[in-house]
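User: Please look over both lines:
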Amino acid sequence: QVQLVESGGGLVQAGGSLRLSCAASGIIFGIRHMAWYRQAPGMQRELVARISGGGRMDYADSVKGRFTISRDNAKNTVYLQMNSLRPEDTAVYYCNGDFILGGISTEYWGQGTQVTVSS
């Protein structure tokens, strides 16, 4: 079993920055990818950023140039550095990981961390 625990959310004014962390615990034999999603009130959950097991990064158009995803494989931790935050970035941010355990690939989700950006 794998657990993902997010941290770093909070309340920030527009133009400010936050750094989210997601730590994965458990016996992990491989990482297919890790990603950050977000869900605003009344909206569907959307992909924000993703980093593959090989280190390839992808971003939603709305966050390109402002957000950066990174990973520390030794710590099984993924980060999301968020700069120049806007009110429309307000959402619950969820960590997602696709891991290889026991010879199979399994997807896991964190419980989310609230990010609120005030104008």
Summary: The chain is about 0% helix and 60% strand.
